[in-house]
Design goal:
The complex is a heterodimer. Chain A has helices at 7-21, 45-49, 61-73, 92-99, 102-105, 135-138, 152-164, 215-229, 246-256, 271-283, 307-310, 314-325, and strands at residues 2-5, 25-29, 54-56, 77-81, 115-120, 145-147, 169-174, 183-186, 198-201, 206-210, 233-237, 240-242, 259-266, 292-296. Chain A is of the alpha/beta class. Chain A has a seven-stranded mixed beta sheet, sandwiched between helices. In chain A, strands 9-11-10-13-14 form a five-stranded mixed beta sheet, sandwiched between helices. The mean pLDDT of chain A is 97. In chain B, helix 7 (174-185) links the parallel strand 2 (162-167) and strand 3. Classes of the chains: A alpha/beta, B alpha/beta. At the A-B interface, helix 3, helix 4 and helix 5 of A face helix 6, helix 7 and helix 14 of B.
Chain lengths: 327, 368
């Protein structure tokens, strides 16, 4: 049995089913109770599970992440919601200095099965600091896993895997495509494995790597470039950005010999840079052109009047593909 | 009620005033019948002497180059041991890095403490059996972990409290305030045990805050606050016992300010003479010493004598030397230990980096 759901509905369903499935699971965050979350991801869950399991917290992100750590230490499986990725900054110390390190520093004596869910990225006409894509910060944090779904099916399956994961997971939700399309999502509780990328479309001329809200851009660029120029693209959704699915990435590059990375994050020291480096390490001799990054710019994400110019567009991705193909 | 009375005192009396049971002269101000029996009183004394002995020994190990930087606690034994003895086995304990008197009294092996300050990964453990977390190095962050753990206990209706240990400097951090607020709003069974030793490294409390006391911050969150003589092991024990009882009755958190003094440096890396008049302060605080006052009391009650004292000193030395020699004779940690426990299961890059280091070590013959 399946239903047509968008990403936000798939997330709500994953939370609902895990709350029903495991007494240890609980949600906490700002406005997640009566209000159902600023994006309605927790809509209806307070009524169903009560205030002990769907808890509104004071407005304090360090408090949310820090108490999430304590809850996880003492037998709960907490899923914290942070309203926007940039609002996690006050809780960064808790993420970096404690959540990611607890298992290592205590030699496995204490572990933290916990999830931090947060919307990220531009494209929703948000105010200042509601549009950041700083996932690379967290890929510098051993001990943490970073997951970014781009479809309703993956959103549900990855969130369930994140909740069941024995280690802390940062679950980044692409705000721009929360409600932009629906697809068939199984009603049952299922898992999409963390650490596995997905080949969304197969091709032989060039590999396109993307994640989150850049997936629809990458796919549409691939389709157009095939129609216009006849080049076929291997399009790969990373889904987990830390740890990366090396085998999938390298296999694709070995097949095509060319690659572009599409990301809305800033260009310098980004996941895109990491992919270039990984391909350099593992598939240099297969390359027929330098790996290209089509990226957000190295400027603060602008206010929304200019956000469309900041973000990679289909046109920019196509231009990047052409440049790589014609190198 | 101890706490209500103490709160009244905080709001109406001078700066130095606090709740006290045992005076520096070893006299009781309040009866302890039914709260502290003879064997507990003697136990407190033994624990304090043991802790002071190993603290001094750790400093000397550091001076000899056999241990890394160390954070001494001499002077703060009553605050740590009085509080930890008021807990039960199921309670959760979140220490900072100066709480070895408390953690060892609760059962953590002294070997763990020494391994930690020798920079070994295997010293980073807490003590799971008694719900002791590893020491928190960032300031005040672990108060929120105590809040979360207490929250879990409350959700499951368990009879357990969480206690977080921190210093006066920590009360300037945002996480301190977020913790009091979270615990207050959810009425969580948490005890915030602040050892106000007067100095955050070199900064005296009057430069730390314009608050007259730390305990008074509790009233801003409408939670309980008590200011206790932190060098009075009976007073600390009774204040924490009361806070624990209230927490288990669902009356929420308590902020305990234990007023004390660290005799020595912040860590072995600084010199207190640089930032305070050590001679004058030591003269003042040694008169208030936590161990001496309890000894006076025990001797007056015929619970302690010179023979027991010298036996205790010999026992402490023997046990501590044994622990030290065990740690010093441990084989060096294997470099691959750093690759363990990053995740439940090592991802490919960590597994490969471990192999890479192993190859280098084998090739260079560096692995002993």
């Amino acid at each position: 049995m399946t239903q047509k759901l968008n990403i936000i509905q798939a997330i709500t369903q994953a939370l609902d089913q895990k709350l029903a499935d495991d007494r240890r699971v609980m949600l906490l965050g700002e406005d997640i109770g009566t209000n159902g979350g600023v994006f309605r991801a927790t809509d209806g869950l307070l009524e169903k599970y009560g205030a002990d399991r769907v808890a509104d917290t004071p407005l304090a992100e360090s408090g949310i992440v820090g108490s999430t750590i304590g809850l996880a230490l003492n037998g709960m499986i907490p899923v914290a919601e942070i309203q926007f990725l940039a609002f996690l900054y006050p809780g960064l110390e808790q993420v970096l200095s404690h959540a990611a390190r607890m298992r290592h520093r205590s030699r496995g004596e204490y572990t933290l099965p916990m999830v931090i869910r947060t919307p990220y990225g531009a494209g929703i006409r948000g105010p200042e600091l509601h549009s950041e894509s700083v996932e690379a910060f967290f890929a510098q944090t051993p001990g943490l896993k970073v997951v970014v779904p781009s479809t309703p099916y993956d959103a549900k399956g990855l969130l369930i895997s994140a909740i069941e994961d024995p280690d802390p997971v940062l679950f980044l939700e692409p705000t721009k495509i929360y409600r932009s399309f629906r697809e068939d999502v199984p009603e049952m509780l299922y898992r999409v494995p963390i650490g596995k990328a997905k080949v969304v479309q197969e091709g032989s001329d060039i590999s396109i790597f993307a994640w989150g809200a850049m997936m629809p851009v990458a796919v549409s660029a691939a389709k157009q470039i095939e129609e216009e120029r006849g080049w076929t693209c291997d399009v790969i959704d990373l889904r987990t950005i830390y740890p990366l699915d090396r085998d999938c990435i390298i296999e694709s590059v070995k097949k095509t010999g060319r690659a572009v990375v599409v990301q809305e994050a800033h260009k310098t020291a980004s996941m895109g840079a990491e992919l270039v480096s990984l391909i350099n390490d593992e598939a240099l001799m297969y390359l027929r052109a330098p790996v290209k990054r089509i990226s957000g710019f190295d400027v603060p994400v602008p206010l929304f009047a200019l956000e469309d110019d900041y973000m990679p567009t289909t046109a920019r991705v196509k231009a990047g593909i052409a440049e790589t193909m014609l190198f | 009620m101890i706490i209500e009375e103490s709160l009244r005192r905080i709001s109406s009396e001078p700066h130095e005033d606090f709740y006290q049971v045992l005076t520096p002269e070893g006299e009781l101000l309040i009866p302890i019948d039914g709260m502290i029996d003879n064997s507990l009183a003697v136990g407190m004394y033994r624990h304090m002497v043991y802790a002071r002995t190993f603290d001094r020994k750790c400093i000397s190990l550091q001076r000899q180059g056999r241990m890394g930087t160390y954070a001494p606690f001499e002077g703060q034994e009553a605050a740590q041991i009085g509080s930890v003895l008021a807990l039960s086995d199921d309670d959760w304990m979140f220490p900072s890095y100066r709480e070895h008197a408390a953690t060892v009294t609760r059962g953590q092996p002294l070997q763990t403490v020494i391994r930690y300050w020798k920079g070994r990964l295997d010293g980073g453990v807490g003590y799971r059996e008694k719900h002791i977390l590893p020491p928190s190095v960032p300031i005040a962050t672990h108060l929120l972990h105590a809040v979360g753990a207490a929250w879990a206990s409350r959700i499951r209706h368990e009879a357990a409290v969480s206690i977080a240990y921190f210093g006066d400097g920590a009360t300037s951090e945002g996480d301190f305030h977020e913790s009091l607020n979270f615990a207050g709003v959810n009425r969580l069974p948490v005890i915030f045990l602040c050892q106000n030793n007067g100095y955050a490294i070199s900064v005296p409390f009057n430069k730390q805050s314009s608050s007259r006391t730390i305990a008074q911050r509790a009233s801003a969150y409408d939670i309980e606050g008590i200011r206790v003589d932190g060098n009075d092991v009976f007073g600390v024990y009774m204040a924490v016992s009361e806070a624990r009882k209230r927490a288990l009755e669902g009356q929420g958190p308590t902020l305990v300010e234990a007023v004390t003094f660290r005799y020595g440096a912040h860590t072995t890396a600084d010199d207190p003479k640089k930032y305070r008049d050590q001679e004058e302060l030591l003269a003042k605080w040694r008169k208030r010493d936590p161990i001496h006052r309890l000894r006076r009391f025990l001797e007056r009650e015929d619970l302690w004598d010179e023979r027991q004292e010298s036996q205790l000193a010999a026992d402490c030395t023997e046990q501590i030397d044994q622990a030290i020699s065990e740690v010093l004779s441990l084989p060096p940690e294997q470099p691959e230990a750093m690759f363990e426990h990053v995740y439940a299961e090592a991802p490919w890059h960590i597994a490969e980096q471990r192999e890479e280091l192993n190859r280098i070590l084998r090739k260079d013959g560096m692995q002993s």
